[in-house]
Protein: Leucine-rich repeat receptor-like protein kinase
Amino acid sequence: MLTRHGGRLQNEVSSITCSQEVVICQNFGGDMVKHSGVFLLFLALGFVFQSVKTRLPPEEIEALKTIARAINKTNWDFSVDPCSQELSWVTPNALVGYENSVWCNNCSNDGSVCHVTSIVLKSQNLVGMLPPEMAKLPFLQEIDLTRNYIYGSIPKEWAVLPLVNFSLLGNRISGQIPSWIGNFTNLRNLVLEANQLMGSLPEQLGHLNSLELFQLLSNFFSGELPDTFANLTKLKYFLIRSNNFNGKISQFIQNWTQLLRLDLQASGLQGPIPSGLSRLKKLDDLRISDIVGNSGFPQLQGIEQLQYLTLRNCGISGVIPKFMDNFVNLKRLDLSFNKLSGSISTTFQNLLHTNVMFLTGNNLSGPVPDWMLLSKNNMCDYLSKLCIIVGDFFDICNEVLKIFPYSRSLLGNCTLITTCSGYAFLGLICF
Structure:
């Protein structure tokens, strides 16, 4: 019952009985209004939607909102459940290189409560500092912010995360790799390529016993590789090209018997190339370049399964060894800018799958073998160099060579046959 007291309306509690037929009773402007069961249905649906929203704990919802603000992620739709795989949270069939996904797992038995386990935001032009609030997602196993404009150092708050996959490739991350990353004992992939990181690698990284991918290319790292890295026996990919390391290439690399790819190009490390590389029976991609020191041709017998071999500017002298004839799976071979001498003879005649071969900048002599005729191979280097070797007439029909328009001026006195079917390219012939 409503009474007016002191010029104001005052509600007095009264007993209002609603029938078993669902009816909502309200006081509104002094009138009793009855709403039908239809309104209750909408209200009930609202409660259902509200329960869906809270499938993530409230603190994880707030963490996602803070993360979104920190990196300018503007299209997460918080009016729906982040675990729903709705388009703003998971984008299927995206363009190559682009990825947008937030995944949940570790759900309760009834599925009412889940947790964020993966955040992958690739190539989205995100800008901002790495958010410490990632640490408020205690079940987060994957962070991948590849190819954005994220800057700052790696937050110390992240030390508590159970990370398995961690990629900040192609951003502007600075500072040093923190030693506490060595506590990520379940970490399998560490990708920090193309950033502005510097300093020595902490020895604690040698505690990452589950690590398979170690990718630090194109940074400013210095110092020697820690001896503890000998423990990384599950490594499949060790890629540290384009850095400022020093010291010799470590012998402990021979412990990495699961290794598939080793890239030390322009890493700053010094020779000689370890003889123990021949123990890496699964290796199919070996790339070493620009190392200081002189040595003979490395002992690579036993790893004839190699498909890619680069030993460029490594101070290698002597003749090309006969065992290279056994590398029948090679697709690309680069021995350029060494001190190799002698003739090519028949050393490479079994390399039928080799698409690209670089022998530039050595002291090789003698005739070009018949099996190396240009019409049968895909070679590359400046054509003028070839003219010096083979005379003033050659045939590049059936070649697959890149076009270099300026190379026509390098032909010298060579005569070019152009009456081929398809294209006759001016390009690189690697001698």
Notes: The chain has two domains: 2-48, 55-327.
